[in-house]
Amino acid sequence: MKSLIRPFYRLLRANPLFQRVLRHELAALGAQDWSAAIVDRFIHGPSGADYGVGAGAKAELAAAFRAVTQHVPSGTAPIVHVVLAEAILSIPRETEGVVVECGCWKGASSASLSRVCALTGRRLVVCDSFAGLPGDGMRRHVGVHTGVYGYYREGMFAGALDEVQANIRAWGAIEVCDFVPGFFSESLKALHSPVALGFLDVDLESSMRDCVRAIWPLLVEGGYLYSDDAGDLDVVKVFFDTAWWRETLDCSAPGFVGSGCGLPLSPSYSALGYARKLGAFEESAWKRAGFLHYPE
Ligand SMILES: C[S@@+](CC[C@H](N)C(=O)[O-])C[C@H]1O[C@@H](n2cnc3c(N)ncnc32)[C@H](O)[C@@H]1O
Questions:
Q1: Does 23 reside within a domain?
Q2: Atom 20 in ligand 1: which residue has the minimum CA distance?
Q3: 152 lines ligand 1 (CB under 6 A)
Q4: Where are the alpha helices (DSSP H) in 172-285?
Q5: Is 129 near ligand 1, meaning CB less than 6 Å away?
Q6: Which of 28, 33, 56, 267 is 20 to 30 A from 94, comparing alpha carbons?
Q7: Coil vs helix vs strand at 284
C-alpha cells in the first residue's frame, strides 16, 4: 500500500497548490515550517517587481543558492542567501549603489549575491584578505544563546583569490564582481561608490569595526548592513557602542536587529541580523500600532 501511495504523493508534493494547502494546514496547527514560509514569501512576495524579476526567476535563484552551498564550502546557509536576495530585490530600482560583501571565504555567498546583482544591474564588490582571518589574540568567543564557545585561529577560512573567482565563475555571475583584496583596515580605503546594501561576515570584532568605519559613510539612507555574525555578542556590541560611533562616525549607534539569536529564520537560532541607516523620520514610511499612544 505504502509503495502505491508514494509515487502519487511525490507527484502531489511537487504541485504548488498542494504545497500551499499543506503549509496552510501546518500554520493552522501552529507548526509552521519556518524555512518553507521564508522561501515562499521570497518567491511569491513583491520583491523583484521593480526589476521585472518574477516568481520563476526567484525560484531559480533559490535552487541556485541550494546548489552552490552543496558544491562550495559555505559559512552561510542557503536560507541566508534567500533573505539577502530578497533584501537586494527590495531596494528601489532608482536607488544608486553597489552591493558590498566583506568576508567571502571560498566565494559561496559571493556567487549567490552575484546572481542577484546581475538581475538588478548592480556591481558586487567582494572584499577579503583572501588569506583568511587575521589573528585576534586567541580570544574566547561565546555564543550566549547557542551555548557554543571556541576560538578563531589566524588564517582560518582562507580562500585564495583565484579559487574564489573560479567558484563564482562556476556558480555565480563573475562579470558583475569587483575584488578588493587585503586586510580591511587598509583595503576598504579603496571603496568610494555609494553602497546600496552591505553584507559583513567577518567573525571578529576588530574586523567588524574596520568594515563599519569604511562602509557606513557610503551606505545610502535607509540602507541595510547585514551580518552573519549576529550570535556573537562581542561582534554585535559594536553596533551599540555609542562612544565609538560618535567619535568615529559622528552619529549615534544604530543598534543591531537580531542581536544574540538572529533574525527568525528558524524557531531556534540564526546568525543573520542587520543594522539600518535611518534618515529623518517620515511618518508615511511607518505603521501605527494599537498598543502605542499618538498625541493627536
Ligand atoms: C566566515 S568567513 C566568510 C564566509 C562566507 N561569507 C560564506 O558564506 O561562505 C570569514 C571571512 O572573513 C575574512 N576576514 C575576516 N576578517 C578580515 C579582515 N580584517 N580583513 C580581510 N578579511 C577578513 C576571512 O578571510 C574569511 O574569508
A1: no
A2: 183
A3: no
A4: 184-187, 205-215, 233-236, 242-249
A5: yes
A6: 56
A7: helix
* 84 belongs to a structural domain: yes
Task: Report the Cα 68 to chain-centroid distance in Å.
Answer: 15
For residue 109, give the C-alpha cell: 555567498
282: which 3 cell numbers?
517620515
74 is a domain residue: yes
Task: Specify the residue with its C-alpha closest to ligand 1, atom 12.
Answer: 103
- Give the DSSP letter of residue 217: G
Q: Is the beta carbon of 78 within 6 A of some atom in ligand 1?
A: no
How far, in Å, is the centroid of ligand 1 from the Cα of 196? 20
Interval between CA 101 and ligand 1 midpoint (Å): 9
Give, using CA atoms, the residue closest to atom 11 of ligand 1.
103
Is the CB–ligand 1 distance for residue 215 below 6 Å? no
How far, in Å, from the CA of 256 to the mean position of ligand 1?
Answer: 20
Q: Is the CB of 86 under 6 A from ligand 1?
A: no
Q: Are 81 and 65 in contact (CB under 8 A)?
A: yes
The Cα 95–Cα 81 span in angstroms is: 21
268 Cα to the center of ligand 1, angstroms: 25
> How many separate domains does the chain show?
1
Range of the domain at 184: 32-280
Tens place of pLDDT per residue across the chain (296 aa)? 445 555 666 666 677 777 776 666 555 555 556 788 898 899 999 999 999 999 999 999 999 999 999 999 999 999 999 999 999 999 999 999 999 999 999 999 999 999 999 999 999 999 999 999 999 999 999 999 999 999 999 999 999 999 999 999 999 999 999 999 999 999 999 999 999 999 999 999 999 999 999 999 999 999 999 999 999 999 999 999 999 999 999 999 999 999 999 999 988 899 999 999 998 899 999 999 999 999 98
The answer to whether residue 27 is domain-embedded is no
225, β-bridge pairs: 198, 275
Q: What is the pTM of this model?
A: 0.90
CATH number where 253 lies: 3.40.50.150
- pLDDT tens for each residue of 155-164: 999 999 999 9
